[in-house]
Design a protein that fits this description.
Elements lengths: L3 E4 L7 H12 L4 E4 L4 E6 L3 H11 L8 E3 L6 H4 E3 L2 H10 L4 E7 L13 E5 L4 H10 L3 E2 L14 H8 L5 E4 L10 E4 L6 E4 L5 H8 L27 E5 L4 H13 L4 E5 L10 E4 L4 H17 L4 E5 L8 H10 L7 H5 L3
Helix pairs in contact: 1-5
This protein binds threonylcarbamoyladenylate and magnesium ion.
Length: 345
C-alpha cells in the first residue's frame, strides 16, 4: 500500500490535507495524526472492520484495548455510558490534555476497541490538528500510538513513516509532539480509581482533583491494561538503567560493555565521560523538556544500530513519574540478552 504523506501546519490546517485524511478515515482506512502526546494511528471507532486494520498494521494482539479520541467534550456520551462525578471533575480540570479516562462503554462501541471488556478509554486531545481532523471526520477515532507493537511511540511523522510506512493509508505531518510521552491512563470504574499508566500529569495532581488516592497495578499482575506489557516503550537495544546521578556507575558500565565489543550508546542528564566510539545523548534536566525529547533520542539510537544503551534514571519526584515509568519499561530485558546479562558480575 502506498502511504500518503500530508504536511499540515497545526496553526493553519490546510483544508485539502484535512479533507483528504478525513475521507480516508470515513472510508475505513488508517491515518496517523499528531496529538500533543505522541502520534496516533486513527480509525473510525464505531467501525469494527477499520479497527481490526489497526491491530493488523501494528501487529498488536487483540487483547490490548484502544483509546477513543473525541473532537468535542460533549461527544463523550456517544462513547461512555456513565460519567461519575469524579470523572467530570477530572475532565473539567484536564480535558483537553494528556489524560485518558477509563469509563463504562456505550453498547455501540465495538468489542475489538475495548478488547471485549465493558470499559472504554476516552481522550480529548489538545492538539489543534487532531481536533480539526476528528471534527472533519465527524465521529470518534480509535487511536493507539502509531508504532509497531512493543516499539517506541512516534513523536514525529518521520518516526511513523519508518515504522508503519506502506502499511497505512496516510500520515498527517504536523511537526513534533509537544508533550512527548503517552497520556496518563486513569480507570475511574474501580474503587479506588486505578492509575494504569503514569503520564506528565503527576499522580498527586490528579488525586488532588479526584479528592481521593489511587491504586497502582501490582507489579507482575496479569493486568487488563496492555500498556502494562512490560516491554512496551522499548528500543531495540538492550537497556541498562542506572540510578539518577550515578556518574561513576554509568561510566563503568560503558567501559565494561566497550570491552565486550558492543555498539554503545548512553542517555543521561548528568555530564559523563563516554568512550569516544559511544554515542552520548544528554537530555535536559527539566522534566517536560526531557519528556519531549526522550522518544526521538530512542528512535535515533535505534536507527544508529546501538546494541547496548546505558541510561541514567530520572530523578525521583512527581514531575518525573511518567519519564521514570517509560525508562523502567524500556529497561525490561529481551530474552536474547539473558545469557549475557547473567555473565555480569
Ligand atoms: O497519549 C496517548 O495515550 C496516545 C495518543 C495517540 O492518544 N495513545 C496511546 O495509545 O498511547 P496506546 O494504545 O498505545 O496505549 C493505550 C493505553 C494502553 O496502556 C491500554 O492498556 C490502555 O490505554 N487502555 C485503553 N483502553 C483501556 C481499557 N478499557 N481499560 C484499561 N486500559 C485501557
Ligand atoms: Mg502504544
Amino acid at each position: 500500500m502506498r502511504t500518503e504523506y500530508l504536511i499540515c501546519d497545526p496553526q493553519r490546517p490546510d483544508p485539502e490535507a484535512i479533507a483528504k485524511a478525513a475521507a480516508l478515515l470515513r472510508d475505513g482506512q488508517l491515518v496517523a495524526f499528531p496529538t500533543e502526546t505522541v502520534y496516533g494511528l486513527g480509525a473510525l471507532a464505531f467501525d469494527e472492520v477499520a479497527v481490526a486494520r489497526v491491530f493488523a498494521a501494528k501487529g498488536r494482539p487483540p487483547s490490548h484495548p484502544l483509546i477513543v479520541h473525541l473532537a468535542e467534550l460533549d461527544w463523550i456520551e456517544r462513547v461512555a455510558a456513565d460519567i461519575p462525578p469524579l470523572a467530570s471533575r477530572l475532565m473539567d480540570a484536564y480535558f483537553p490534555g494528556p489524560l485518558t479516562l477509563i469509563l463504562r462503554k456505550q453498547g455501540r462501541v465495538p468489542a475489538n476497541v475495548t478488547a471485549g471488556g465493558d470499559t472504554v478509554g476516552v481522550r480529548l486531545p489538545a492538539h489543534p490538528l487532531a481536533r480539526t481532523l476528528i471534527r472533519a471526520v465527524g465521529a470518534p477515532l480509535a487511536a493507539p500510538s502509531a508504532n509497531r507493537f512493543t516499539e517506541v511511540s512516534p513523536t514525529t511523522a518521520e518516526h511513523v513513516l519508518n515504522g508503519l510506512g506502506g502499511r497505512i493509508a496516510a500520515i498527517l505531518d504536523g511537526g513534533p509532539c509537544s508533550v512527548g510521552i503517552e497520556s496518563a491512563v486513569l480507570d475511574v470504574t474501580t474503587n479506588p480509581p486505578t492509575l494504569w499508566r503514569a503520564g506528565v500529569l503527576s499522580q498527586a495532581a490528579l488525586e488532588a482533583v479526584a479528592g481521593q488516592p489511587f491504586q497502582r497495578p501490582r507489579q507482575g499482575a496479569t493486568a487488563p491494561s496492555p500498556g502494562q506489557h512490560p516491554r512496551h516503550y522499548a528500543p531495540r537495544a538492550r537497556v541498562e538503567l542506572l540510578p539518577s546521578g550515578d556518574v561513576k556507575g554509568l561510566e563503568s558500565r560503558l567501559a565494561r560493555w566497550r570491552a565486550a565489543g558492543r555498539r554503545l550508546a548512553a542517555l543521561t542528564i548528568s555530564e559523563i565521560t563516554a568512550p569516544p566510539d559511544a554515542t552520548l545523548i544528554r537530555l535536559p534536566s527539566e522534566a517536560a523538556a526531557y519528556a519531549r525529547r526522550l522518544y526521538a533520542a530512542l528512535h535515533e539510537l535505534d536507527a544508529q544500530g546501538a546494541e547496548v544503551l546505558v541510561v541514567e534514571q530520572a530523578p525521583d519526584s512527581a514531575a518525573w513519574e511518567g519519564v521514570r515509568d517509560r525508562l523502567t519499561r524500556a529497561a525490561c530485558q529481551s530474552p536474547e540478552f539473558d545469557a549475557e546479562a547473567s555473565e555480569r558480575s
